[in-house]
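Retro notes (design track)

What went well: tokenization of the new backbones is finally stable.
What didn't: we kept losing track of which sequence belonged to which structure.
Fix going forward: every design gets posted as structure first, then sequence, in one message. First example under the new rule, 211 residues:
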């Protein structure tokens, strides 16, 4: 049984980048709905409890699209809540240097991220992922998740489904991506993911207390 984790901050904490209304809908309705479907599918399959990461991998290898999409979105949103923080903080030297190597500088990183987010057609996510070769950007459609990163570790990922920004930005996905990148990424979270990508500790996992 998968359970919805509480947000690590108040609904209004990410304003004005993300409104309390969006957070409430996004967490309490959208995220909860994915989790409900995962539990329904698991129940039909006999109610076996596994780590969410394992559920995703098993659904991918058995071709169970309904379970894969909903488990993927369950994981994506858990990661998304934890990688944001009010005010965001400052990127670490390691993250800065990684951005410099891959994108020629911080502005290049930001503009390539925004462009790549604009390039995700329809619903999906834009991710910055890292491995021994450095940082790269990857868009994913719909509920696709960490198993599509070819072994790389996600540093951060932005939800570009319309439910993530339409209340606050209407059709202006670009403004959403820019405001999001500048305002609410928790850079100490990203730094921990960056360490994990290069062999230092474990990356983010779905909380065992909510499995
Ligand atoms: Mn969403």
């Amino acid at each position: 049984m998968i359970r919805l984790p509480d947000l690590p901050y108040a609904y209004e904490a990410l304003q004005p980048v993300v409104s309390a209304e969006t957070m409430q809908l996004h967490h309490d309705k959208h995220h909860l709905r994915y989790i409900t479907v995962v539990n329904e599918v698991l129940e039909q399959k006999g109610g076996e409890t596994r780590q969410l990461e394992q559920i995703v991998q098993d659904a991918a290898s058995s071709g169970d699209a309904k379970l894969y999409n909903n488990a993927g979105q369950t994981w994506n949103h858990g990661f998304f809540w934890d990688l944001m923080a009010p005010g965001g903080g400052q990127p670490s030297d390691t993250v800065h240097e990684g951005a410099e190597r891959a994108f020629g500088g911080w502005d290049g990183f930001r503009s390539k991220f925004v462009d790549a987010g604009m390039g995700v057609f329809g619903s999906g996510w834009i991710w910055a992922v890292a491995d021994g070769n450095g940082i790269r950007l990857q868009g994913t459609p719909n509920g696709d998740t960490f198993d599509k990163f070819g072994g790389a570790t996600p540093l951060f990922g932005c939800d570009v489904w319309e439910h993530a920004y339409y209340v606050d930005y209407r059709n202006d996905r670009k403004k959403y991506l820019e405001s999001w990148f500048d305002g609410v990424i928790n850079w100490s979270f990203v730094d921990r993911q960056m360490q994990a990508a290069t062999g230092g500790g474990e990356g983010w996992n779905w909380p065992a207390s909510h499995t």
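Added context from the reviewer: The radius of gyration is 16 Å.
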